[in-house]
Specification:
Chain lengths: 307, 541, 307
């Protein structure tokens, strides 16, 4: 197991390097730069600024400087857009926010998704099943940029129960709507996967045997069926966790929570190279980490799988 | 008599019962009853990029800087000059040497006195290539002596035309005569920065824990992408007159989301989304506010080689100009009290006399008929041969206007338009490479003079991406800079523009806001919208 | 699908596989037709496609002409009405919403279908090759997939759109690129099992070339998995496109898409122009529902485990 983990972590190094080079080149081929503005800067002013941020170096040297800075000092550079902040500060500020509501949404989605999926599977082809399937597909196809304004309209403007946005250090009133908007579609996917995989397990021979032995439905579910049925759910959860964190752009934009989803889109539009790189690398690392966790979990649940 | 006596009595009783300090509850000048809570919360669409006076170039940053720092002069609610840190100034006969006299009771928030040396330091900092400020071109605009050489790094900053004669006297030497120079000292790049703090903390000096400022407020909290708070500065020389205790700016990028939050009472001010003004002014008549701004919205025609050949014919350009139904755009699309534009310079600009313009007085049907005739005359009758690329940057209202204008051209002239909606940086690149036939632009005059608009028409202006060259216009602009009364020059330039149509003015902006009806004294007459939180206040309902 | 397996039957080598294959497809069709939800969905989906193709014939207005009579008071004059020809009302600019929804349907379905076709072709070829060749090549190819999977694709897509500007072509390729990796993994797994089947050995023994075996024998037998996956991929593509439109990086006006229409409709929801959200959202939701039900139906019909 340890050898497997080490091997995977070793593979992560070239992956991240490829990611850095690829994003760097892509970014620099985008039209316009961080300092192009409505009123074009006089050339001498532009030259001063580019010198300050080392943008006049050859691209290969820029990549090298960047990579060595990251590796040796964990320094992701200053933001080009926000004059008094570094990338580390921007991520340090935005990531905890995203992580907080992302994790809560994740837990909510997993809990309700599994519950919905299990209910549907155990009552296959009953009205409960159809209802659960209907709800989950409905939730999956309603884009969260539609849900967000509707939530605000109902809970803020009509009922006056919740603040319409902001973060305020993560108080619960500020968390509710972002969590609903973010978790719903993932909850739906989890419910669908849970349902079909549990159905498959319930129709398998060993469950039939268990039933023949006279075990109760509850015993069968919790002692025999659930664990193998969770495997496909878990393999879905790894990437999902990362997507929930990165896919939070809509939540950030609509509820002004100040997470890194919005920071990324802004940095891409402003050509804030260093912030864009920093967040891309962060997400890349998270993806690798969670893929690894999924594989380890997989092996833990299903001893047949060798790492 | 008896009545009023008893009223005074009851009021006095009520006041003494309810409030500990009776005086604080009345406005010192107008005697209105003030609200207990004086917290102003407003929406900003975007996070500020900087609040360093010499580095900031964005509108949001400017609003912060005017509250946190104070320059030599301020503007009052009509946009006229009033004393700031300087109480008054002298000028020599040919408007090249200004001497500003600073008040002796101005202090920084850490208690240090504000001196002429602070201004000297800051202006040199603005021009210094080491600062690498994107706004350093403003120093060039100010026309300080030796500014170009200093900015290019060929001359030391000590040679710049600004000197502190003593702690309270600042001498400014200009390259050329400039009558409106004092107006420039109300612009944020000329505001002072505290040298000791800048040098101690470097680029971190503008963070709430480090910042030292000399304005009516200090920055006390900043949560990026969410909110920032500025609180009353007790060290400010005129702190007594400040009423608003705290100003909170919330970053909300979506206009509709901001409006919802305004309506639920979370904000005191937000923008009215385009096209919603009529409806909102019916449902919230006391809260919708509209006033003219010194900004214009126009399309410019590519006159370089890469353009569509038809556009080189002034008759085609005039046809395009005439076929835009500006009333539809201002009344049906924008609906916020914007002004249909037939001239480049907004009519609200000081000392500007728009020339007689025949197009303005026609009905749209007559304009359309004339446009069709002109297109025929130019040999493009029916418009079928003309297909134009219309370039604009991503924004709901730019997109709406582009769609509507393209339909007007199509339905009136038969001219086809290909819409090129590009995100901002790509748009800038395409514009500077002349990859368009017609492009969108907007311009807010940096100061209240026609030249702040018409300078854009000079052949060497950096914003002149359209490649418009007219020697007479260049000459008129050069002459206007040294003229006592350049009004006639500006009128003449507008006349030339009206015949050659290198640009197609569409509308002049209005500030269109939802504003809490207890918020008082918003400077609606200040066309540059230089507002200061210290002049605002909330009255009790 | 049946056509492909027919072609397969002209092949002289694999008689056993062919008889089995034909009955498998017939069997699947029977099972699919028994699934009422899937059949209804298929009919509705065909209806949506018909509207996309022939809807413009019924329109009184085209998708870009402005109705000057309603402009300025959309909230009352722009409401759905049969008398002025705006069956679905108008958008904020007085353009006919019916025509725009029809046109948006064309674009969104195109994105969904072309995007998933790209993903399926790329994924299938890559996965089948890796699985068939095996050994070191397989190892390297799958390692590359692992690396690519660690790249946060939503971010890369945003970058791509920023770099190359908005273009329909790029949108297709972009959304397709995101999804082929998962496909390639599934296909590789299936190929590994198929490779050891007798008919492959038989083909090899009489000297059939490798690429012919992959194209003629392996891929046709993968069709079940591919079809299921592709059906579930289409709604993902459409959702991705809608997110891109929400960010303002979608198709160029006067063209539109469901995502763009929904996002416009959602932003004006509070001003009483509910139809601007309702109609495009209805099309969007119904279509996605259909794809999900059809996907589920196909899986039930084709998945050998359930038999």
């Amino acid at each position: 197991m340890l050898a497997f983990i080490l091997k995977r972590l070793f593979y992560a190094i070239p992956t991240i390097l490829i990611l850095i080079v690829f994003s760097f080149l892509l970014m620099h081929s985008a039209p316009g730069g961080p300092f192009s503005s409505d009123r074009p800067l006089p050339p001498e002013v532009l030259a001063n600024i580019e010198a300050k941020y080392h943008l006049n170096d050859p691209l290969i040297k820029q990549i090298w400087t960047y990579v060595t800075g990251v590796v040796t000092q964990f320094d992701f550079g200053p933001s080009f857009q926000y004059k008094d902040r570094t990338v580390n500060e921007i991520i340090g500020q935005g990531f905890p926010v995203t992580l907080t509501y992302g994790t809560i949404s994740f837990l909510v989605a997993v809990f309700f998704g599994c519950a919905l999926g299990i209910t549907a599977a155990l009552n296959q082809n009953s009205w409960l099943d159809y209802l659960a399937v209907g709800i989950s597909i409905g939730a999956q196809v309603l884009p969260n940029f539609v849900m967000a304004p509707i939530l605000v309209l109902v809970f803020t403007l009509w009922l006056g129960w919740l603040p319409g946005g902001g973060w305020n250090g993560g108080q619960w009133q500020y968390l509710i709507m972002p969590v609903i908007a973010l978790s719903t579609s993932f909850m739906a996917s989890i419910a669908r996967i849970m349902r079909s995989s549990l159905l498959e397990v319930m129709h398998s021979n060993y469950i039939r045997t268990a039933r023949a032995k006279g075990l109760t439905k509850r015993e069968i579910l919790f002692n025999h069926a659930l664990k193998p049925a969770l495997l496909p759910v878990i393999s879905y959860l790894g990437p999902t966790f990362v997507i929930m964190i990165t896919g939070s752009v809509v939540v950030d934009l609509y509820f002004t929570t100040g997470g890194i989803g919005q920071a990324f889109v802004n940095s891409a539009l402003n050509r804030d190279y260093s912030v864009m790189m920093g967040i891309t690398i962060l997400i890349g690392c998270l993806t690798i980490l969670f893929n690894l966790i999924v594989d380890v979990l997989y092996a833990w649940i299903d001893p047949k799988i060798k790492l | 008599m008896k009545n009023s006596y008893s009223w005074v009595l009851t009021t006095a009783l009520t006041l003494s019962l309810s409030a500990s300090s009776v005086l604080a509850d009345l406005h010192p000048v107008t005697n209105e009853v003030l609200a207990d809570e004086q917290i102003f919360t407003y929406r900003v669409g975007d996070e500020y990029a900087s609040i360093d006076p010499q580095l900031a170039e964005d509108v949001q940053g400017g609003e912060f800087i005017r509250d946190l720092f104070e320059g030599l002069m301020n503007q009052n609610s009509d946009g006229d000059l009033v004393p700031g840190v300087a109480t008054h100034f002298d000028v020599n006969d040919d408007n090249t040497i200004y001497t500003f006299y600073l008040r002796d009771n101005a202090k920084w928030s850490d208690g240090e006195p504000v001196t002429a040396g602070d201004f000297e330091y800051s202006w040199k900092r603005l021009a210094d290539p080491a600062t690498a400020s994107p706004y350093s071109w403003f120093a060039e605009e100010m026309g300080l002596e030796n500014v170009e050489a200093v900015m290019a790094g060929d001359m030391d900053t000590s040679e710049l035309g600004v000197t502190a004669l003593d702690d309270h006297t600042l001498e400014v030497r200009l390259e050329n005569s400039m009558g409106h120079f004092p107006l420039m000292t109300t612009s944020e790049p000329t505001f002072p920065s505290p040298q000791w703090t800048v040098e101690e903390f470097g680029s971190d000096w503008t963070k709430p824990e480090n910042i030292v400022s000399n304005g009516a407020y200090v920055l006390t909290e900043h949560v990026p992408q969410e909110r920032s708070v500025r609180s009353r500065n007790p060290m400010y020389w005129n702190d007594e007159a400040t009423i608003i205790e705290r100003v909170e700016a919330l970053v909300i990028s979506d206009e509709s989301a901001a409006l919802t939050r305004y309506l639920s009472g979370e904000l005191d001010r937000t923008e009215v989304p385009s096209g919603q003004f009529n409806q909102l002014s019916t449902s919230h008549p006391n809260e919708t506010v509209t006033f003219p701004r010194l900004c214009n919205y126009y399309y410019f025609v590519n006159l370089t080689e890469s353009t569509h050949p038809a556009l080189l014919d002034p008759r085609v350009r005039e046809a395009l100009y005439l076929a835009i139904d500006r009333d539809v755009i201002t009344e049906a699309i924008l609906q916020g009290g914007e002004f249909p534009a037939y001239s480049f310079t907004p009519e609200a600009t000081a000392n500007f006399l728009p020339p007689a313009n025949p197009a303005r007085d026609l009905t749209q049907a007559e304009r359309n008929a004339r446009a069709v005739a002109l297109l025929d005359e130019a040999g493009y009758g029916g418009g079928a041969e003309i297909e134009l690329d219309l370039l604009f940057n991503t924004s709901e209202s730019h997109s709406k206007i582009a769609i509507i204008v393209s339909q007007m051209w199509k339905q009136t002239l038969g001219v086809t338009t290909v819409l090129q909606n590009m995100e901002w940086k790509t748009f800038l690149e395409a514009r500077s490479n002349q990859e368009f036939d017609i492009g969108r632009a907007g311009w807010c005059g940096p100061y209240n003079m026609a030249s702040s608009f018409l300078d854009l028409m000079s052949s060497d202006h950096p914003y002149n991406d359209a490649g418009y060259v007219n020697a007479e216009v260049d000459q008129l602009l050069t002459d206007a800079k040294v003229s006592e009364d350049p009004t006639a020059n500006f009128t003449r330039i507008e006349e030339i523009l009206a015949t050659e149509n290198p640009i197609l003015p569409i509308y002049h902006y209005a500030g269109v806001y939802m504003m809490d009806d207890s918020l008082q004294n918003w400077p609606v007459n200040n066309v540059e919208q230089k507002w200061y939180s210290r002049e605002l206040y909330f009255t009790a309902d | 699908m049946t056509n492909v397996s027919m072609t397969n039957s002209t092949d002289t080598q694999g008689d056993v596989a062919n008889t089995k294959g034909r009955s498998l497809w017939q069997d699947a069709r029977r099972r699919f037709l028994q699934n009422r939800a899937a059949v209804v969905s298929l009919i509705v989906l065909m209806g949506v496609c018909l509207i996309a193709l022939f809807g413009p014939l019924l329109a009184a207005w085209d998708n870009e002409t402005v109705d000057w009579n309603v402009l300025g008071d959309i909230a009352t004059l722009g409401a759905p009405s049969l008398s002025n020809g705006h069956y679905f009302g108008t958008d904020e600019l007085g353009r006919d919403l019916y025509s725009r929804v029809v046109q948006g349907t064309q674009v969104s379905l195109m994105v969904g279908i072309v995007g998933s076709t790209i993903a399926v072709i790329l994924g299938t070829l890559y996965g089948a090759t890796a699985g068939y060749v095996g050994g070191k090549t397989d190892n390297i190819m799958m390692r590359i997939v692992d690396i690519l999977m660690s790249i946060p694709y939503m971010f890369v897509l945003i970058l791509l759109l920023v770099v190359f500007g908005r273009s329909m072509w790029l949108l297709f390729v972009g959304v397709g690129m995101i999804s082929w990796l998962e496909m390639s993994r599934i296909v590789r797994g299936q190929t590994l099992t198929l490779k050891s089947k007798e008919y492959v050995d038989a083909a090899l023994s009489i000297g059939v070339k490798h690429h012919v075996i992959v194209l003629r024998h392996i891929i046709p037998n993968l069709l079940g998995v591919i079809v299921i996956y592709a059906t579930l991929l289409v709604p993902q593509m459409i959702l991705t496109e809608s997110f891109i439109s929400f960010l303002g990086l979608g198709v160029q006006e006067p063209n539109t898409s469901w995502g763009a229409l929904i996002s416009e409709g959602a932003s004006t929801l509070q001003y009483g122009t509910y139809w601007q959200l309702l109609f495009p959202l209805a099309f969007f939701v119904i279509t996605l529902f259909c794809f999900f039900f059809i996907g589920d139906g196909l899986r039930d019909a084709l998945d050998p485990k359930d038999r």
